[in-house]
């Protein structure tokens, strides 16, 4: 499932991130790329300076942990420290699939869900769409600052060349409690139906059955 999540970060959080990044150093993105991705990766990434990273991670993790759509669609179990990537004119990231195992420094985990969080207004740069190849064709994604898109880490994707301005994004990879994308999508939709029923008809027996089925499907499929 490819899902856009609007308003993950608010204006105050975006301003704070801008402030932190204003004096930060960016390095060649190829340093963090796997062997296959290195050939097609041409961008810059924030240098992992502990104080800066801690501040940025705190903003991002607190925003994500409070976001109901993110939690319901991803069912997050573990998450790597996010990467902040910058694309200036001429920069691009060709077709690739994200690494399956993440977490070089800390504990290792499997990437199930990839997230791109847009940090710049789309009018402020040209190009720079995230293009995800799905079975229904290519999806081109370029969202408002503060919005995120999540998609299965197994998808082939690329970033179109930036031709003017600067594309700035935060990237995160998450291991889900539920590994299979089709099961995650089913649980996400069932949970939406469950929440609507709990609001509209909390006393009805069918609501209790949907609620019970949701909980027991999670129990059946979840890794912990
Ligand atoms: Ni990628």
TrEMBL record:
Single GO BP term: DNA damage response
Fe2OG dioxygenase domain mapped to chain residues? 69-176
Cofactor(s) essential for the protein: L-ascorbate; Fe(2+)
Q: What residues does 2-oxoglutarate bind to?
A: 167
Keywords per UniProt: Dioxygenase, Iron, Metal-binding, Oxidoreductase, Vitamin C
Q: Does the keyword Iron apply?
A: yes
Q: How is the cofactor bound?
A: Binds 1 Fe(2+) ion per subunit.
GO MF terms listed in the record are: 2-oxoglutarate-dependent dioxygenase activity; iron ion binding; L-ascorbic acid binding
- Top-rank taxon: Bacteria
Q: Which residues bind Fe cation?
A: 96, 98, 157
Q: Short name of one Pfam family for this protein?
A: 2OG-FeII_Oxy_3
Q: What is this protein called?
A: Fe2+-dependent dioxygenase
Q: What is the lineage of its organism?
A: Bacteria, Pseudomonadati, Pseudomonadota, Gammaproteobacteria, Chromatiales
């Amino acid at each position: 499932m490819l899902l856009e999540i609007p308003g993950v970060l608010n204006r105050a959080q975006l301003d704070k991130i801008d402030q932190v990044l204003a004096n930060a150093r960016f390095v060649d993105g190829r340093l963090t790329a796997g062997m296959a991705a290195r050939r097609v990766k041409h961008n810059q990434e924030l240098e992992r300076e502990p104080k800066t990273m801690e501040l940025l991670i705190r903003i991002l993790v607190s925003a994500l942990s409070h976001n109901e759509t993110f939690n319901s669609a991803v069912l997050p179990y573990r998450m790597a420290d996010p990467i902040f990537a910058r694309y200036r004119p001429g920069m691009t990231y060709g077709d690739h699939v994200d690494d399956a195992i993440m977490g070089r420094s800390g504990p290792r985990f499997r990437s199930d869900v990839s997230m791109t969080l847009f940090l710049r207004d789309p009018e402020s740069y040209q190009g720079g769409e995230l293009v995800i190849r799905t079975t229904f064709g290519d999806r081109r994604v370029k969202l408002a600052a503060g919005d995120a898109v999540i998609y299965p880490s197994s998808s082939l994707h690329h970033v179109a060349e930036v031709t003017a301005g600067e594309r700035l994004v935060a990237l995160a990879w998450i291991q889900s409690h539920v590994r299979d994308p089709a099961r995650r999508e089913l649980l996400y939709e069932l949970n939406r139906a469950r929440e609507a029923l709990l609001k509209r008809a909390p006393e009805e027996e069918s609501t209790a059955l949907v609620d019970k089925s949701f909980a027991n499907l999670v129990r059946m499929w979840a890794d912990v």
